[in-house]
Each structure stands twice: as C-alpha cells, then as structure tokens.
Amino acid sequence: MRTRLIFNPAAGNAEANEGELSAAAAVWRERGWQVELTPTAGPSDGRRLAREAADAGYDLVVAAGGDGTINDVINGLAGSRTALATLPLGTMNVWARELRLPLQPRAAAAAMLSWQVRPIDLGRAGDRYFLLMAGIGFDAAITAGVGADEKRRFGALAYVLRGIEQAMRVRGSRTRIQIDGRTISGRVLMVVVGNSQLYGGLVKITHRASIDDGLLDVCVIRGDNGLSALRHLIAILRRRYSHDPEIEYYRARSVHVTARPRLPVQVDGDAIGQTPMTFTVAPRALRALLPPDLPEDLAQQPSSSAERPRRAFPRLFRWLSRR
C-alpha cells in the first residue's frame, strides 16, 4: 500500500502530533506499507499534495487532522483512483466518529489494517466538494465566527460559545429553495445538505443519509429567531423530527438556495461564502478506506471483489490448508 500521509506541522501541539503520526506510520510499515509523511506548506496545501499523490499513482492518502484537513484532501482526490483515509487530530473529528474509528492515531492505524476500499459519493457546493455536509445559515455563521486560536484554546467549547452569541441575534431569512426543481420558500434559520449522517460529532440532523446512494439529504429548519433555533435543536436532540412542523426533510440530487438577506455557507466546518449557491451530488466520486461493519443505512452497496484487500488470497489458502 503506497501511502502519503498529509499533516499540518503548525496545528495544535506539533511535536506531540508528529510523534503520534510516526507511531501510526510504524504500525503500517510493519505490515509492509510504504508510508511517506508529507507536511503542508500553508492553508489549503493539502489539496495540492493529494492531487500530486493521485497523479503519481499512490494507493492511499491519509489526511492527518480534523474535518477541514480532510476536506482539503478530498478536493485533491475527487475523481481519482487514490483512496482516502484519516488519522484524527482535529477539534471535532466528525468523519472519524462517523466511521467509529479510534481517536488515538496509533489505535486508528491498527484498526484500518482490516478495512476495505470502497467508492462513495461526495457533495458539491458550487465548485467545492464536501464529504460530510454543507450548512447554510445559523450554523455557518457560527463557523465563520470561530477563529483558529479559539479552536486551539477551547476546542468544541468555542462553537458552543459562538452558538450562544449567534442565538441571541439570529433572525430567519426569506429563503427560496429549489429541490430537484421543486420550490419551497419561507423564513428559514438553517439548511443542512448532508452526504453523511453525523453532525458536529453529536447529533444526526440528516439522519437518513447514505454515503453511496447517489442522493443528498436536505433538512430545512424554519423559524424567526433564536428561541425557534433552541426549540428545533431540542427536537433534533430528542430525535423527534416528525413532531416539529418547522423541520422539513427531503432527498435530492440538486439543491439551489437563495435568500434575503444572504446566508453564509460552510462545508465540513469551513466557511466558503454566501448564497445564492447550488449543491449537487457527485456519485461515487471518491474511493475511501472504510470498516467492513458500517451500518446498512449509512452505506448501502456491498464492496465488490475488486475492492477487497489483497490479503484475501492468503486467507483463502490458509482456509483450504485446514480442510
């Protein structure tokens, strides 16, 4: 397995992180993997390094960091034969939690030795791919307000503090949403366009999303103010979506959102701009290293024989020798 491990040398406790990454790489090298540790040179450099690896025919690119690092990497890997994996070193690590990956890098590296490469979908916001979800409105305003220093100092608490601040002044925007040609409109606090289920590492807003069904799941949260946002959040936490008349759920291939005033947009935890914006699904656009026991509602398609690890044949020979 020819592997490039991409990491940010300036993130968090850099010395401790590099020790963790070296330990993880040692786990893979013991199994014969060729592992190259490659630091980024600046913001968004992960995309360039991932594209270089794909063009050079690497089997795997490992994004070592949080969901923002993964987003950079998938934008370099989309449409290629090189697969994605992750080592969790970020604030939220939502993708790692979605896959039930251990959050300690060495343990994560050991777990991935039994995983398989499978094709999955990506979402697209304008010309930017996303793996997890796009958020429009309230949550994107929170994301835009949290600085890198705050994330390093407070971790997930930084988002909670900004969320309280935003809830005090948020107002619903007059919004028009086209979902596969069908139009809905009204005052909206937030829209989540999900490719996967887990949101923020805590709740499942797009709780029926599948990473390989060729569709995006869309949750529209209507309302006028912060009290509405709090009521809807309680409904989401209690998984009582169907009991809240201001929470609507759709599935689509294409979603176009316009609003007045304009709403901020974030993907995978990074602010990327404002509405109007179009969101589309990119079916099977990414190959990813996944556990064999993913829940059926998260990944529908079984892996093909072509995607199985190469060690399947030695296992077969051992099985025959015991017969």
Can you describe what's shown?
- It is globular and about 55 Å long.
- Helix content is 31%, strand content 34%.
- The chain is built from 10 helices and 17 strands.
- The protein has 323 residues and is of the alpha+beta class.
- The strands form 2 sheets. It has a 15-stranded mixed sheet that branches.
Brief characterization of the structure:
By secondary structure, the protein is an alpha+beta fold.
What is the strand content? Answer: 25-35%
Biggest sheet descriptor: 15 strands, mixed
> What is the chain-wise order of helices and strands?
EHEHEHEHHEEEHHHEEEEEHEEEEEH
Please bin the fraction of helical residues: 25-40%
Query: What is the global morphology?
Result: globular
Number of strands: 17
Poorly predicted parts: 303-323
Spatial separation of the terminal alpha carbons: 31 Å
Helix count from the secondary structure assignment: 10
Structural class, by secondary structure, is alpha+beta
Radius of gyration: 20 Å
Report the average pLDDT across residues.
Answer: 85
Key features of this structure:
disordered C terminus; 323 residues; alpha+beta; two-stranded antiparallel ribbon; single chain; 17 strands
List the SSEs and their pairings.
Layout: E1 2-7, H1 14-30, E2 34-39, H2 45-55, E3 60-65, H3 67-77, E4 83-88, H4 94-98, H5 105-111, E5 116-125, E6 128-130, E7 133-137, H6 138-145, H7 148-154, H8 157-169, E8 173-179, E9 182-194, E10 198-199, E11 203-204, E12 216-222, H9 226-237, E13 247-252, E14 254-260, E15 264-267, E16 270-274, E17 277-290, H10 312-321
